[in-house]
Design brief:
CATH topology of the largest domain: Immunoglobulin-like
Number of strands: 10
Number of domains: 2
Order of helices and strands: HHHEEEEEEEEEEH
Distance between the termini: 72 Å
Structural class: alpha+beta
CATH superfamily of the largest domain: Cupredoxins -  blue copper proteins
Length: about 280
Amino acid sequence: MKITKPTARSAGRIFATLLLLGLIALLFSACGTDTPQNTFATKGDVAHDQRTIFLLAMWPAIGVMIFVEVGIVLILLRFRRRRADEVPKQVHGNTRLEVIWTVIPAIALIILAVPMLSILFDVGRSPKADAFTINVTGLQWQWLFEYPDVKDANGKPITLAGDPGTAPSGHANAPLVHLPAGREIKVVLKAQDVIHSFAIPRIAGTRDAIPGHEEVFWIEIDEPGTLHGQCREFCGFGHAGMTMTVQADNDTDFQAWVREKQQPKGTAGTRSGSPAPSASP
């Protein structure tokens, strides 16, 4: 039996087929929605607005891409060289067509700018005066959370933090941070040493924590539940373990957690950062 060597054309087809299958697998791997940090599975007002802006930009862009690609294929078919000695007809400009493809995108951009700018101004506004305040400080390699308006038994703000230096060993270093659901929250973000990035994707987008700079923004969580986040700026060897877990509580559970934290040490029955029995919704 004669064995023939694969030609360059057949090898190219095999490579193209494998590449297509790989792209399809990659596409479907991104279709899951039940992931802890899925940006599209939003759980807060800011995240809702950010997803809306993304979709407002994405769908027109996809429409433009399809229109351009179809146009390219039609042009290739219509104006291709049909004989080896043939010179295709030369076309030089079309004023009417150029005006059309300049005016239509300009109108589309103006139409899209109205809702987008409205959303951006709302997301970028200052927190309301009655917003619940939490101070967040990034340091190598943990997040420090402070409740300035919630005092412990000694009259000091309640503070949650992991065990310094243990972050590289895994997620156990991250404290469970309780926040009220259905209420606007003012976040005051800082960094102690290097640049960190604070991100809880289901609530809001990424915010940089920069040494010497105080970043103030607002978030709001729709309903009780557990949410996950992490540092998204490489900040050293322990970066991978610099995670956080947020427990959004209804008003009753949050007040119960506050009362527990306000008890003198040794009477609450839990260590700092651990969930109270009534904290889970």
